[in-house]
Amino acid sequence: MIKIDFDKMGGLIPAVIQDAENGEVLMVAFMDEKTLNLTLESGKTWFFSRSRNKYWMKGEESGNTQDVVEVLTDCDADTVVIKVRQNGPAACHTGNRSCFFVKWEDGTWVEHSKPLFNPAQVYKK
């Protein structure tokens, strides 16, 4: 039986969030045992914010939730890939579809997409 190894990295594991339809990597976040269980039970993605030191469900503020389609772990059982159906236009808090919109090109980092929503209007911080 496989058991996810939360101890290897101080109680957290990386979670790669991937669009189930086209394979695009939407984001990478961290999970502990509680948020992985919440994700598996609810069918929505839950994470642990290291900067805010709190649990959060993707889309709880923006409405851009993620429906879990499939969950996989790697051979070391210390990382998960979660294939999702993205609800709403964007997975990234910057308003971009994916958090991976900056590309190394000719010796510099270049943004390759435009935000699909204005984060200042969505996240009332």
Explain how this protein is built:
With about 120 residues, the protein is mainly β. The protein has one domain: Roll (Ubiquitin-like (UB roll)), CATH 3.10.20. The chain has two helices and eight strands; from the N terminus they run E-E-H-E-E-E-E-E-E-H. The strands form three sheets. The protein has a four-stranded mixed β-sheet with strand order 2-1-6-5, covered by helices on one side. Strands 3-4 form a two-stranded antiparallel ribbon. The chain has a two-stranded antiparallel sheet with strand order 7-8. The chain is globular, with a radius of gyration of 15 Å. The model has no long low-confidence stretch (mean pLDDT about 95). GO terms for molecular function: magnesium ion binding; phosphoribosyl-AMP cyclohydrolase activity; phosphoribosyl-ATP diphosphatase activity; zinc ion binding. Belongs to the PRA-CH family. In the N-terminal section; belongs to the PRA-CH family. Its main location: cytoplasm.
Please sum up the structure shown:
Homodimer. This protein is mostly beta strands. 11% of the residues lie in helices and 36% in strands.
Comma- or semicolon-separated keywords:
single chain; 125 residues; mainly beta; Ubiquitin-like (UB roll); two-stranded antiparallel ribbon; 11% helix; 36% strand; globular; phosphoribosyl-ATP diphosphatase activity; zinc ion binding; hydrolase; PRA-CH; EC 3.5.4.19
